[in-house]
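[Structure tokenization] protein backbone as discrete codes

[Encoding] learned vocabulary of local backbone shapes

[Begin record] amino acids and matching fold tokens:

___
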Amino acid sequence: EPSRKLRSLTLPDLEPMSHGLGWLWNLEEFDAEKASAHTVQIGFARPVDLDQCVVPAYLQGKGELLSRVKAADARLRQAEVDALGEDWTKTCYEGILKCDKSKYLVK
């Protein structure tokens, strides 16, 4: 189960797993380089977890998912800034190589 903190940040718009799927399905809206995802792998710990995949699929089909994901994402980002500071959130990836630039890349 997700933590209470995570649930409190994604609700009332979406459950955490539904938010994660919605975010990934709409990745081009959140990624500056307009990346897209083509594969989603989900592990179910309990039967009710399947519902958390059906809900965002239904909302995506109705065109209602993106607004809910954006609302929950805004709360998550604000919690990140509150916990870590604005400067850190803007610079935490500086100096980290992209995987295709690493000498350990396997082709």
Remarks:
- The helical segments are 4-10, 16-25, 27-30, 51-61, 65-84, 86-91.
- The CA atoms of residues 23 and 29 lie 9 Å apart.
- Residues 65-84 form the longest helix (20 residues).
- The two ends are 37 Å apart (CA to CA).
